[in-house]
Inverse folding.
């Protein structure tokens, strides 16, 4: 099967390329910045996207590429819609034209975070920030333009070699900096490697639809940080618990935004608990004590 991976220079896109090649796929990687084995493609350019996909005739396009700087999206919401919304529309239209399936990687931030239970796949989105809105626009484009779609929402992704919450907090602890972490933001920490494997498993089922792929269990930012600091040998490092109101930023994150992987479990795809995923991540980094 021929697959195109967008955002192939990123952590999720790169891991997807590795897994697909291991499983015998003919894989083409694209990104806005080309690299070794990665072709350049600007997804905000409709003509370029259509010509690229039409020329290569993939059977599936996996689309994790996005502008994920949530504060940047808040500062320039129209740019966010152009990249995350219209860029996804271009992919959806082009894949439909060549009768290919599409996987769109979305976010828990399409929800407002005002609930009191994990969101299920067909709960009504109501984004409260520009990033979430732009990703919801991408969801709508995928739903309307390509019936062979997989929409996969995830949250709080952490990966090897990338900039993420775990590495930021650990670096601060190593430097002896004072740690202040919010207690009222709740979601599912998700290991990049687990998500990539689940995405590939999903496309091999042929079960189109909306899915929530996250490591099991929702937790606050504060308790998430406390867990991995303890596991990495920083049990004695204090963390000051604060409210999100004490940490002003351009974007307004949803407060309680855990996801339930109901649809995935129904077809036999479940990700392990987030604590086990964090331990695996730390062990691979040589940080698990």
């Amino acid at each position: 099967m021929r697959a195109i991976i967008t955002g192939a220079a990123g952590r999720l896109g790169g891991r997807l390329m590795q897994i697909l090649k291991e499983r015998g796929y003919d894989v083409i990687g694209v990104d806005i910045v080309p690299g070794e084995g990665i072709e350049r493609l600007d997804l905000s350019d409709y003509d370029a996207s259509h010509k690229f996909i039409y020329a290569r005739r993939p059977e599936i396009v996996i689309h994790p590429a996005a502008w994920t700087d949530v504060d940047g999206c808040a500062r320039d919401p129209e740019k966010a819609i152009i990249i995350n919304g219209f860029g996804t529309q271009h992919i959806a239209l082009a894949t439909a034209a060549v009768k290919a399936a599409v996987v769109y990687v979305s976010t828990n931030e399409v929800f407002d975070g005002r609930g009191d239970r994990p969101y299920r796949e067909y709960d009504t989105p109501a984004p409260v920030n520009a990033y979430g809105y732009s990703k919801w626009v991408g969801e709508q484009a995928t739903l309307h333009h390509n019936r062979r779609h997989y929409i996969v929402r995830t949250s709080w992704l952490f990966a090897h070699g990338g900039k993420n919450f775990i590495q930021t907090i650990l670096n601060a602890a190593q430097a002896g900096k004072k740690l202040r972490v919010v207690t009222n933001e709740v979601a599912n920490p998700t290991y990049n490697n687990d998500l990539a494997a689940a995405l590939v498993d999903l496309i091999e089922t042929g079960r189109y639809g909306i899915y929530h792929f996250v490591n099991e269990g929702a937790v606050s930012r504060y308790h998430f940080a406390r867990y991995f600091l303890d596991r990495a040998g920083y049990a004695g490092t204090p963390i000051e618990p604060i409210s999100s109101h004490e940490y002003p930023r351009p974007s307004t994150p949803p407060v309680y935004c855990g996801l339930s992987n109901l649809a995935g479990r129904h077809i036999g795809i479940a990700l392990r608990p987030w604590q086990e995923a964090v331990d695996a991540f730390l062990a691979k980094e040589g940080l698990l004590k």
Notes: The first strand starts at residue 2 and ends at 5.
